Amino acid sequence: PGGKETVTPMRTIDCEACLRFALFGERYSYSGWHMDILNGTYVTIVTGLKAWFIYTGPWTDKEKTEFSQKGMTWTPAPGTVKMIVLRPEDTLVMRPGFPVIHAVLTLDDSLAAGGMIWANTAIPKIMENLAYILPYAVTTNELIPRQLPEYLDALYAYVT
């Protein structure tokens, strides 16, 4: 799996690295079906082309079980996927709190910039998505952020 990680002299800051990141994609590179672990992601294409495949079908116990077992090799049912071709200056927002299962094919060498966004109104759904993703490593292409417990503690304090 990939992952977004930044190293400082003091410690690894992988949650904070999700706030802003750059993606370099070589032509025909592919990232299989996954959810972004912290959900709520935006990406802007700087150069090149990317095809973003987004699962739009139902998110029932059946799909949750299948995806939690197969992850990147999961095959969505016919008619449940939309494709968006992203060109330079296009920005895609995958809303926080929604289980956005997606796969990405780089059509031409590309550079993209992006980050993570959360909204106060989405916090309960973000927590629900985290509760689904964390036990099933195959559902994401990222490592579990080391600082996630600190973030969850801070979030709990904020909410209470």
Could you explain how this protein is built, in words?
This protein is an alpha+beta fold. It has a single domain (15-159), classed as Cupin (Jelly Rolls, Sandwich). It has four helices and six strands. Strands 1, 2, 3, 4, 5 and 6 form a six-stranded antiparallel beta sheet that branches. The longest helix is centred in the C-terminal third of the chain and has 12 residues, at 148-159. The relative contact order is 0.29.
Q: What structural category do the secondary elements indicate?
A: alpha+beta
CATH class: Mainly Beta
The beta-strand count equals 6
Helix-strand sequence: HEEEHEEEHH
DSSP helix count?
Answer: 4
CATH topology: Jelly Rolls
The percent of residues in helical segments reads 10-25%
CATH superfamily: Cupin
Please indicate the count of domains: 1
Q: What Rg, in angstroms, do the CA atoms define?
A: 16 Å
CATH architecture: Sandwich
Protein name: JmjC domain-containing protein
Q: Could you give the topology of this structure?
A:
Blueprint: H1 14-17, E1 21-25, E2 30-34, E3 41-55, H2 61-70, E4 81-86, E5 91-94, E6 102-116, H3 123-133, H4 148-159
Protein name: JmjC domain-containing protein
Keywords:
single chain, 160 residues, alpha+beta, Jelly Rolls, 4 helices, 31% strand, JmjC domain-containing protein
